[in-house]
Each structure stands twice: as structure tokens, then as C-alpha cells.
Amino acid sequence: MRKTARGSSRSGTRKQPSQTRSKALVDALIQTTARVLLRDGWQALTTNRIARDAGVSVGSLYQYFPNKEALLLALVERLADEMTARLMEVGAALRDASVAEGIVTIVRAALDVSRRDAPLYRAVLVELPRQGALELFERVNRRLADALTEWLVDRRDELDVVDPSLTAHVLVTSLDALTDHALLFHPELLESPRFERELHALVSGYLGVRRPARARRSVNGRSRP
Amino acid sequence: MRKTARGSSRSGTRKQPSQTRSKALVDALIQTTARVLLRDGWQALTTNRIARDAGVSVGSLYQYFPNKEALLLALVERLADEMTARLMEVGAALRDASVAEGIVTIVRAALDVSRRDAPLYRAVLVELPRQGALELFERVNRRLADALTEWLVDRRDELDVVDPSLTAHVLVTSLDALTDHALLFHPELLESPRFERELHALVSGYLGVRRPARARRSVNGRSRP
Amino acid sequence: MRKTARGSSRSGTRKQPSQTRSKALVDALIQTTARVLLRDGWQALTTNRIARDAGVSVGSLYQYFPNKEALLLALVERLADEMTARLMEVGAALRDASVAEGIVTIVRAALDVSRRDAPLYRAVLVELPRQGALELFERVNRRLADALTEWLVDRRDELDVVDPSLTAHVLVTSLDALTDHALLFHPELLESPRFERELHALVSGYLGVRRPARARRSVNGRSRP
Amino acid sequence: MRKTARGSSRSGTRKQPSQTRSKALVDALIQTTARVLLRDGWQALTTNRIARDAGVSVGSLYQYFPNKEALLLALVERLADEMTARLMEVGAALRDASVAEGIVTIVRAALDVSRRDAPLYRAVLVELPRQGALELFERVNRRLADALTEWLVDRRDELDVVDPSLTAHVLVTSLDALTDHALLFHPELLESPRFERELHALVSGYLGVRRPARARRSVNGRSRP
DNA sequence: AATGAATGAGGATTCATTCAT
DNA sequence: AATGAATGAATCCTCATTCAT
Fold this sequence. Notes:
InterPro entries (chains A, B, C, D): Homeodomain-like_sf (IPR009057), HTH-type_TetR-like_transc_reg (IPR050109), HTH_TetR (IPR001647), TetR_C_15 (IPR041669)
Structural class of chain A: mainly alpha
Protein name (chains A, B, C, D): TetR/AcrR family transcriptional regulator
Oligomer: homotetramer
Keywords (chains A, B, C, D): DNA-binding
Helix content of chain A: 55-70%
Region (Disordered) (chains A, B, C, D): 1-22
DNA-binding region (chains A, B, C, D): 46-65
């Protein structure tokens, strides 16, 4: 029967790669998927091509992924996991940060996450049409928002924040949306200090942290008289 | 031959639909494309299906569009044009608006544009994997940014703005990114006053306009009467 | 979606071949299916092979048959139709036949139907694993049984028949089963007078028509003293 | 490689399962084959599935069966063997049976054999497309025919039989064909006394044994006391 | 200009079979 | 002997595109 996938879970791997060998195979397949996507784009991304490039047979691919979609999802999942891991560090760094330091940390984190694996992340955002992928990235943001909320609560006195949870959400969403947007349409911005400065200003302004007028450009400077 | 288009121009209509009949046909095809995309999704969006639903033959479709991609692009183009038209009105309304009024206008415009044709816009964002489409939407933003730049220049005295063009760009990008993001992941936000309020706060803060009510502890704000 | 056939009827042709051209194509495909099945057997019966041998593209095949199964069913249907047509003639010939003539007619009909297209019929019986096919052949038998029932009723006085309908059914089923069996395991029997004679004896005996003892072999002879 | 078996003997087990363990394994595989065929049909009948359900590895399956076909054949063989065993008893019972008893015995035997394992037997008949299988069942019939021939010869005086061997063959073939047919198309008949009565009438008529009760108008029958 | 039947390369997926461990 | 991961040829079916009418 060609028509219906009879695999078990329909999304997710077909069998838990407990053995080392299997793990390596799954890894190779996901990485090859990324590579092919980057090198030759969406239309070159066929299961046969992936398998061949990964140095295995199609049969092996289907031993570990019930169908093509599952493989794609695994790629996205992996990307999301890496982002989450990096954001966990940000959360830790945030704990003892002053307001000024915190803002810098957050802005920098947003940029870093986008910069890292930027081309792949971009390809995934642009080329993969699937819904499920987007939800995974949402989860990543939720993680960061939680860490940020905590930080905002701790600095309630110094900041113009009424609802920390909402504010955190808006901040994360904004930064995510802005960096994603930059990644898609103005990749060069991700490397531009000017862009970082503007993000800084946006966050500062939103949080009610004003630097002296006419001195906006000194991001991190001690206020001049 | 599937992958390689041997048609002439590769993007844009194959012939200018000068006759009324042709124009109507092109319209019907684009609208049908939208309808099919909305009703049955990306997978159902085949040229044969579109032609049939539009009441014409595939041959006719290919008389006016060199290939499928061109048809998709035409749909996106039409959407972008409608947005631009609406933003032109915003630009006009902006001319004589005070700072406070302007901010409201801009925020509202961003939301309105996303809300209008939200399902179709969403479908296009989520389902169409093509690169070209995104660039079209960029053009729309550029239009708004220009109008906004002018407005910022005129109100230079009242605002904490050094580089109006850059500020306009960041504002437009932010709002666009935020509303797109909301459209994709939290459609309900587009209808929520809370979301509008936060966008408002973001813009105000970024422009250095403090709203007194909320300024529990305005670090450096000069409260205005 | 590759998995589910989205064709309309799932069994039967995808579109009514109203045009002459289409009819010819459908015919060619069915005949080619038969030819391939006969020449190279079940495993050679792939859609691509059939299309190629029929001198058309696979695409065309799928224009007229929603899937492989439908094509196979069409072949069986055609065979069943031809049998039915031939049996209609038998029904007519039966009307005015005497008891003795009728028995000869029926036995001969059973053999004729099996002999005609015997190899194809055999291939279909042996090789096509599908259920639906079998039901079609059942319909054919029902037709013959009806004609036979009428005949039995008309000759009630001369025959040892209590329930004509049941008797007709048993007769038809027996003859069908016996000839099918012969077709499958002893094809040579279909051409053997001996076999015909035995069928004759079976039917005669079942109907209570006894020929003089020790003279059983004279099938059609006028009884000798 | 799918189509071409490169195994040694092509039919029959690869090695004689001399050890108990091996015997058990072969048994398990055949039984599992039957179970899968019954539960999930022809399509689910893959070697991997069979092995898994039987609790062994595919490798082990191929240790004892050179290819899939051999396994299927073994299943059919087992079924045929069981039938043969049962028919041996019939042959014994026949020895001392009177004409009337013998007819009852034979008819009943035909029905019994079909009824036993009816679902599996049916599945094998309907679903297994292989040629070889059918020949096995032929062997079974030959066995019964031999026993029947002997019986006919012994009762030559009481019966209107010229060629016992041929008559036996026709009888066995008829009964087999009729019960198989019933199994496939009217399974309920196998349990119906009416059907048994008709088979009885068929055999009696064929053998020239008239039942007085029904002989409303026996054309030429010599009524026996 | 319009039609829509025809095309056919290409894609996802299966499964009998092998062979290194 | 047993395992089961790996193989890959082969299958069914799709759909963008063409072109004879």
C-alpha cells in the first residue's frame, strides 16, 4: 500500500536510536538534510538525495524516520534545541545582571542566536513550508520569556514595568521578530553595530530606561553631564 | 519538463492583458489561486486545479502566466499592492498629525494592514516557500518608512531622534515584524487592545515620548504637560 | 499527497470516455493489461509497463483510471460482460428447447464460456488476488441461473424438480465450478468429449432424466429399445 | 533484489529441521503466516512482519525458507496435509459402507473438509496468487478419488457406472469445486442442510441412484425397494 | 485565442533479501 | 545459529507543462 503511511508515530523517529550506530545514522541524516537544504535548496531535498549524500540507503532513512516530514521536523527540532541550550546560558547570565547589563545581554543574545547557524536558520524559515516547524521555535521563545520575566520582577523598582510577564513576552517577541526579519531581508544588519544600538534603544525605551537626550548613541557609556 | 521553466520572462505576466477579457481572466486566476490556497492549502494548489476552479483551461492559464511561480507571485503582488494602497492613506493622514496622534496612527495602521485579509496573508506567509514573495512585502514597508521619515523630520524638535531615516526603518520593521509574528503565532493578539497598547508603548518609548500615567519611575523622562 | 488516491470513484474510470479517442485509449489499456498479464504474468503487470506497451504515457493511464486496481477491475468487468453477452444468447436458445436439447445447450454453454478467452480467464482467476473480481463473475452466473429457472419451470412436468430456482442455482454453480476447475487444473478437459459427456450425465442425473442403463454414453441418441 | 530468488532450491525448506528447536521454529513461522494472513490480509504478509510476529529475526526465517514463496507454499502444504489426513479416515470409513451410506459419507466429507479451517482455507484460496498452491490441493483430491474408485468398483453391480476411475474423478472434482465455490461466494451454504441435500441429489443422480421420495416422475428409473 | 488530452521525469515509499557481527 | 540493520531496485502515482486541434 503506497497510499497510507503505516508507520507508528507519524512524526518523530521510528525507533529510539539507543545504539551508538543508530544515533550516528540519525545525526548524519539530519545534518545531510541541513547541508542539502543549504547547498541546493528546497527542491533538491528529496529523500533519495538525502540518503545518498548521507552515505546510506533510502531504506535506512525510512528505518529511522517514518516519512520525509518527520525528517524535516527533526532538523527543525534540533535547531530549536540548540537555540534553547544557548538561551539557557543567557538566563543564567541574567540572574545577577544590573539593568544596564541585562539589556545588553538580552539584545546580544537575540543577535547571537540568529547569527549562529544563520544560513541554516534562514533556509528553514524561508523554505520549509510546514506549520509544525514554527511551533517549535515558539517554544524556544517561551523559554527566554520566562527567564526574562524573572529578571524583570527582580528589578521592578528600577524599571517602568507593570506586568512583567507581558512585558517579557513583548520584548522577546519583538527581538525575535526583528532579528528574524533582519535575517530574512537584511542579513548584513545582524553584523552591524548600528542595528544592535537600535535594538538597545528600543528595549531601553520600552522599559523606561532613558539615557540623556542627544546622547542616545552611547549605548553602554557612563552618562555624560 | 517539471523543474525548468522554458518560458520567456520567468516572472511577470506573459503578455499585458490589454483587453478587458484578458484582464478578467488574470483576475479570476489570481483570485482562484487565493481561494484554493485558503480552502485546501498548499498541496491542493496545482495549476490544473486552479484553472479548473477558475473555469478556464490550463492552456489559458499558461497563456497569461509563464509558469506556476509567476502566478503565485502575481497573487503576492496583488496583496502587496492592496497594502501599499492602504498605507498611502496612512501617509496622508500622518502629514498633519501631532506626535501623539501620529504614533496612534502608525500603530493602528500596522495592525489594520495585518488584520485585513489576515487569513490569506497568513496563508501566503506560512505556505508559500518562495523567496520573491518576501521581497515584495519589503517594498511595502519601504513605502511606509518613507512617509514616516518625513513625519519624523517635521517633528524633529519634539522627538529624541537623531537619524530619522534609520529610526523610521526600525520602527516600520519592528511593527511589521511584530504584527507578522502575531499573525502567525498569536492571531488573537491582532484583535486585543492590550497588544495595541504594548505596541504603543514600544513606539513611544523608542521615540522618547513618555506617557506620564505609566511612568512610575521615569529615569530620565522630562514629563510633558 | 502521495498516500491517498484522491480520484473520485476509486473504482471505475476516472472520466466517462465519451469521445471516440478516449474510448480507444481505455480499450487499448485494458487490452494491454490482458496481454501483459498473459505474456508475462502478474509480477510484470506494472502501471508503467502497461502504459508503455499500450503506447501511451503513465499519465494518460491515470487520466482514465484512478489507480491500478481500477484498471484491473475494468479488465475483469469486460470479461464478465463478454460472458454475459454470450449467456444471453444461451438464454434465448433455451426458450424453445426440449429437455434433451436444453441439457445439451446448457452444458455446451458452460464449456464454451470457459473455452472462449480461456487463457485470459485462467490468468485472471489464478493471478488476480482481489475480491471484487470474484463478485463480478458471480453476477454472470446469476444471469444464467435466471434463464435456467424459467426453462425449468416451463418443463416442470417432465422433470424431477421441486424448487426450480434452487435447482437452477445448483446447476449453474456446479457447471461453473467444474469448468473453472478444469480450466485451472486440467485445461485439456475443456476440449475433451469425455468431459462433456460426464457433465451431461451429471446434469441429467440431477434433473432425474435417466437414459437407459448401460447406454449412458449415448448423449444425444434416441433411446434404443 | 526483489524479483529473482538467488536461493538454492526455490521451493521446499532450505534445510531439514532435524533438531527439535528448528522444527518448532518452522512451525511457528508457518502458523504466524496463517495468523497474519487471516488477521491483516495479503498486504500485511511481509517477511519482516511474519518474523517479528513469530518472535524471530528475518535472518532466521531465511535460514529455513529460501524465499517468501517457499514459506507460503509450506503453509499451503500443511493445510493440504491436514485435509489429506482427514480424507484418509473417510477412505477407511468408505470401505464397508453401503451405497447409500457411501454417498452420505462422501458428501459430508466434502463439506467437512471445507468447513474445517474455513477462514484460513478461504484466505489461501482468495489471497494467495501462486500457482503452486493450487497443485497441492489437487493432490488432496487425487487421494480421495483413489479411495472412491475402489469403493465404486466394489459396488459396480448396484451402480450405473462404466468407468469407475473417471466417475470418481468427476465426483471428487464436482464436490470440491462446489464446496470451494460455496466457501468463496456463499459461506453460509456450507452450514445449510439444503445445500447438503442438493449435493446428495447431485451425487445420487449422477450415480444413477434414485431416491424414491423425490422421484415425482422418474423417467426411466427402476424403483428399488 | 482557447482547449484539455497527453506527457514523462521525478518523488516518496516498500519490502524481499543479504551479511557483518 | 541467530540477529536485525542495511540495502536498493522497483512501484505507484503526481503534476507542471506542452501542443495538436
